[in-house]
Amino acid sequence: MKIATVVGARPQFMKAAMVSKQLRQHETLIHTGQHYDAAMSDVFFSQLQLKKPDVQLHHRDDDLGSMIVGLEETFDQLKPDIVIVYGDTASTLAGSLAASKLQLPLAHVEAGLRSFNRRMPEEYNRVVSDHLATWCFCPTEQSAIQLTKENINGSIIVSGDLMVDACLHYKTVALKESTILEEHQLRAKPYYVATLHRAELIDDAKRLQTYLNHLQTLDYPVYLPLHPRTKKAIEQLNVDPYDILRFLPPLPYFDMLTLLSHSQAILTDSGGIQKEAYVLSVPCFTLREETEWHETVATRWNTLVKEKDLPLLPQLVKQRKRPTEHPSLFGEGDAATLIVETLKREFSRS
What family classification does the UniProt entry report for this protein (predicted)? Predict the structure, then answer.
């Protein structure tokens, strides 16, 4: 069995690391180059013990066409039996389209999520990938139900979520090895963590300014690791320094996991960090009009804060409470094993 795994962005490195541990002799790892910053890419490979890419491409996420062509050429040379893609990024869509064109069996991990907002690139990336996939590995029962409603052709498997695998596997070593709390003198101080990176926010200077201004109104310092695009956009605002907001460079996984774990609350427009917040039992406030992780909102660990509700943000955050119930929404940390066993079984039948 020959497997080609396509990765290109931070969340995919974490997910692929858990599966790749069990596929080393079968797998060719292909990095599209989507996250080109060393802090967004290289350090994750070393910390997660993810093998270095067997194939390194150099395609940014704003050049989907060349990414598809590059992956087609790579698949044509490798002739894999199965292609694996993760999540909802440009790399995922490119891998799915290239595999489909070459009629290669496709496994989409983290299938079935829907924000129902087609203006988001992530939404059509995952919708297209789901409908092209041979196997759809769903993180939750609800995501599997959604695919059934859409009458997709591929097999639907509820696998649980690989981010749970990663958090459970790496949390102890992260808390032991990371020094970020000491570096910022945070061991005994309350603080929040925020992330902003989505194009619809970052590319609109006025909206970005609005969100930063509202984060500035919170009662504790807000540590904001900056995606390179976010950093550039903030620099172009040419605003006075913020005293509550503490901008950080992109963080290695262990530092980010530690920073999130000790925070009072997390404010984010990221899909993956909503999930990490839930796994770490930290209250989350999602700064978007919608979310694909509906279950976290239903359990009240996640609060959706739409743009019109931003003036209420200080009150919402200050009144936060940790719910007493914390159901297992995303599996028990064995998603990688289920995915690998399923692919091996399916391949043996072919």
Answer: Belongs to the UDP-N-acetylglucosamine 2-epimerase family.
pLDDT in tens, the chain (350 residues): 999 999 998 889 989 999 999 998 899 999 998 866 665 667 777 888 888 899 999 887 678 999 999 999 999 999 999 999 999 999 999 999 999 999 999 999 999 999 999 888 899 999 999 999 999 999 999 999 999 999 999 999 999 999 999 998 999 999 999 999 999 999 989 999 999 999 889 999 999 999 999 999 999 999 999 988 899 999 999 777 788 999 999 999 999 999 999 999 999 999 999 999 999 999 999 999 999 999 999 999 999 999 999 999 999 999 998 999 999 999 989 999 999 999 999 988 86
- In DSSP notation, 160-184 reads --HHHHHHHHHHHHHHHH--HHHHT
3-state secondary structure 6-53: EECCHHHHHHHHHHHCCCCCCEEEEECCCCCCHHHCHHHHHHCCCCCC
CB atoms within 10 A of CB 185: 8
The rounded distance, in Å, linking the Cα atoms of 257 and 163 is 11
CATH code linked to domain 166-318? 3.40.50.2000
Tokens describing residue 308: 């019109």
Q: Is the four-CA dihedral 31, 37, 38, 40 of positive or negative sign?
A: negative
State the Cα–Cα distance between residues 219 and 265, nearest whole angstrom: 12
Helix (H) or strand (E) holding 302: strand 302-304
Say if CB 273 and CB 196 are below 8 A apart: no
Q: For the whole prediction, is pTM greater than 0.70? A: yes
Q: Give the span between the Cα atoms of 181 and 59, in whole angstroms.
A: 35
Query: Could you give the residue numbers annotated as active site?
Result: 197
- The CB density around residue 308, as the number of other CB atoms within 10 Å, is 8
Is 3-161+331-349's fold the same as 166-318's? yes
Pick the CATH number of 3-161+331-349 from 3.10.20.30, 3.40.50.960, 3.40.50.2000, 3.20.20.480: 3.40.50.2000
User: Where do the domains of the chain lie?
Assistant: 3-161+331-349, 166-318
